[in-house]
Design brief:
MetI-like fold, 2 strands
Amino acid sequence: MATATKSPARNLNKYGVREKSLWKRVCENWQLYVFLIIPLAWLFIFQYYPMYGTQISFREYKIAYGITNSEWKGLTHMIRFFKSYSCWELVGNTLFLSIYSMVASYPIPIVFALCLNAIRNKTWKGWIENVTYMPHFISTVVMVGIMLQILNMRTGILCSVYCLFTGAETFPVDLLAGGWNFRHVYVWSGIWQGTGWGSIIYMAALSSVDPGLHEAATIDGASRWKRVWAIDFPTILPTIAVTLILRCGSVMGIGFDKAFLLQNDTNLGMSEVISTFTYKIGLASPTKSQYSYASAIGLCNSMVNLVMITSVNKIANKVSGSGLW
């Protein structure tokens, strides 16, 4: 007696509903996939295609010969950099500025967002938001120009105010000279410029807090500080973990613009970082531009950032369960 055999269920999801094939879903929603063409084209042209030029790091690049016809040098340029007398000074300056900036500036937007979220007067809150967001839109060149006008020890605004109250002719300390002065000016000007803008992501996360939680905590007698610590802070903790991972991924990526514009002969020993050094030897060398050498240094820098972001993401996944991937 023949028995009918049932074919196994295929393409069923966990709810027992048959799923459509990928091709059928693409055909039904082709308009959405057309929109993907532009960002994918941008990603390929500006992010992936330039990777072809990375091989300059392993060649003795000469413009007349092009990339592929230039002499192959392997790891020669990288070894040369690690053996140079300036290598560890550059790495030290870059790491110090990055870590100093991270330690000083990272908690401030979080605290600012928590404080701003506690304000109930919408007019006052909106005014504070606008004032703190505006510095982000000032370009680096303009901001450095403002700093030069304020901190100049003879003609700056700070000097004028000091001389008005003390009767002195100049400000006693040149805040734009000396390595330690440069580091403080670099970091704290960045904090002033980025605190308001950096708090936006935390304000967005705080907007998802259920008001009922605060009402229940208030009825139970919780103070405002206890509600911030027990309700608001745990809400933004995953966001804090993700932003910390991204920040650690650029630990060797000190911005070129501000560091270069604030440099002078007195602070060069502590203001020379990897980005400014590669620019000077790659494009601004008075004798011979060393494209391959500068590219090799930049590639090493990128590899360190890749290792850092991967390591921190793995640690974050194990500790808090919140990571980028």
